[in-house]
Every structure is written in C-alpha cells, then in structure tokens.
Amino acid sequence: LAKTTQPISMDSYEGQEVNITCSHNNIATNDYITWYQQFPSQGPRFIIQGYKTKVTNEVASLFIPADRKSSTLSLPRVSLSDTAVYYCLVGDIHGGSQGNLIFGKGTKLSVKP
Amino acid sequence: KAGVTQTPRYLIKTRGQQVTLSCSPISGHRSVSWYQQTPGQGLQFLFEYFSETQRNKGNFPGRFSGRQFSNSRSEMNVSTLELGDSALYLCASSSSGTPPYFGPGTRLLVL
After folding, report:
1. Strand, helix or coil at A39?
2. Do the chains contact at A97 and B101, CB–CB below 8 Å?
3. Beta-sheet pairing, A45-50 with A32-38
C-alpha cells in the first residue's frame, strides 16, 4: 500500500496560487492519485484524480511527473472558502475496492484575506 | 444524481449502548465503505461492502459491524459503546472506475 507524505500545513493569501505537493515513493503501476478537500465536520469532497502528466478541471490542476513518485495539486487564485484540509490518496481506485485507501494526515490550508 | 446520504446526522449515546448508522449510496454505486474520523487518529477505514458481501475490513474490534442490503444501502452497528467511539462516521460509495464519494457523516457523541 502506497504511503503518502504531505506538508502538515500551509498558509496563503486570497488571490494567490497554491501548490500542495504529495510524495508517494512506493506508488504501484495500477495506482491512481486522488485529492480530496474536507471542511470541518463534513465528508471529504473529491477534487481531482490523475494517473500521469497533467489533469485539469474547473477547480484545480494535478501535475504528475514521469516517475509518478510525487504529485502537485494546484489551486488557482484561492479564496477564503478554500480554507480546508486537503488529502492526497494513492491507490488502485479503478480496481473497484476502497479497502486499500489510506488517508494520511492531510495538509491544512489556511487562506488569509 | 443525488449524493451519498447518511442518517442520522447527529447522535448522542451513553456508554454501553449500541448504535446503528445508515448510509444510502449514489444510485448505481455498489461499493460502500465506512470510515471513522477522530482528531487524534484521522480518517480510518472500517470496512467495505460490495454486493451485500464484506470485501475488506480495517483494524477495528468486533464491536463494529456492518451489512449491505440488496439495494446497496448499508448500515453499520457499534455495540457496547465506549467513550473513544465518539467520532465522525463517514460513508463513501463508489462504482468501478470512480473514486469514492463521501456522505456528510454522522457525528456520534458517547457520554
């Protein structure tokens, strides 16, 4: 099971771009990289998922280098409402089983005015 | 599509009691997993059900159990509640090719 390492916390200001990097040195061939956002007392919300190179959706971009041993979640022009904990997960999600998903401590992002 | 729903949203119990939490997955999702989240331990995997069968189980005592019905709805039960069982219990559903989608959670307080 791939273990992930993320910074415990990050601070930013409104309007800035925020990049959160996740290390996953033991990622397996079938593993995908998935990021979730969680607000206090709510369930994690799916942000983005990728396998390699770059993925972009309406809220974020995910950059994955060729060796796939790390990934970077990029949040463009953050606002106060982006203050949350962000989790990086690595696992064979497309295999259907959720049993191999291990949530780390996540990165607590604080956005200031 | 409606998201994952969990009931009740909040619950207060006393030590020694038992509790049953319910989860309705996204329509078409056949896999349902349960997680416990506490400030000290973070998000921990409890178990996963697929087609009414337990597919995976985390490292929790036997007091924690679950089941899944033919319509994919799932329940989890905690017997002989302890103070340490106070937590946010999260349910997530998925289908082949999709990441897990989480419900809003049930906040359980054991007094």
Report:
1. coil
2. no
3. antiparallel
pLDDT digits (tens, 9 = 90+) for B13-53: 999 999 999 999 999 999 999 999 998 888 899 999 999 99
Distance, in Å, from the CA atom of B63 to the CA atom of B84, rounded to the nearest integer, reads 13
Of A42, A94, A97, the CB nearest to B48: A97
| Diameter over CA atoms, chain A | 42
Task: Work out how many CB contacts closer than 8 A connect A with B.
Answer: 69
Cβ–Cβ under 8 Å, residues B103 and B91: yes
Cα–Cα distance, A41 to A89 (Å, whole number): 20
From CA B29, how far away is CA B93, in angstroms rounded? 6
Task: Report the residue from B48, B96, B104 with minimal CB separation from A43.
Answer: B104
Substitution target from B9, B23, B43 for chain A, most A beta carbons within 10 A:
B43
The whole-angstrom separation of Cα B8 and Cα B98 is 26
**Residues in CB range of A96: below 8 A, 6 or more apart:** B31, B50, B94, B95, B96
**pLDDT of A1 above 60:** no
**A94 contacts chain B (CB < 8 A):** yes
